[in-house]
Amino acid sequence: MESKDQWIGEELTPHDVWQHRVTKVLTSCQTPFQTLAVVDSGVYGRALVLDNRWQTCTGDEFLYHEPIVHTPLVLHGNPRRVLIAGGADGGAAREALKWKTVEEIRLVDIDGAAVEACRTWLPEIHQGSLNHSRVHVEIGDAYDVIAQARDWDVIIADLTDPIEDGPAYKLFTREFFTHCRQALRPGGLFVNQAGSMSPPLLTPLSRTAKTIESVFAHTAVMSVFVPTYGSPWGMVLASDTPINTSPAIDAIDAHLAQSVNGPLRMFDGRTLLGLLQPPRHVRERIADETMIYSLDNPPQLSRGNA
Known about the structure:
The protein is of the alpha/beta class.
């Protein structure tokens, strides 16, 4: 990738390409797991790019990190221990640190080079969270770590796309979700970033949601919009206790006011109520889905298929 006036193009389908202009490449390398670049992208600021796929940027990351963190934490009510799978950029840890009740955050990412690149080049995102005393950063395979973990209140799967043979594909399988369920305390919540809600790209989300449904007693789908992702994005919540998908706005706002330090830019009670109402085509697609991801049948992400 050249250093000026280049474009990052992701082929979403055989007929669609989503592009981002790059004004400057700040750093790039091949890690043991993936290609990595941190770039300047003009109006959306600095961005992390892995395997030529846009991951996050300073201009709109709050639209992703606030819902993936505050939704499970506020629905839990009194979270004390939070485990983050992935999350090398530190944005999820930053948001979890805002909770007064949270005593421990464990962030497990397989790619130490990615964590260090984000620590150096994306301070606007992590805001010191990667060095905070309540955050333990562990370089390792989240699959293996969570298989041995117990007694967590919230597990956040803040992952890259499930490209086969990439660092995250195992973390979209029934085996991994089973480990997550076993690692949670009673009343605990799990959340997984699950992919695009665009109709031609819906297969990975529907299969991920169906796989999670096969493990947990209760699930719910959130719909978020991060402009630089190019389409509405889905996140799947799961628990063995019921999930309130119609929370009272005033009650959520009061709980946030009491429990959270620091500003929230997009998340409040009204936003949460909206996030928990996915569109009809998504609900119907998940209901009709039959495929379950497993280690023997993993996701294979390629031009809109999985």
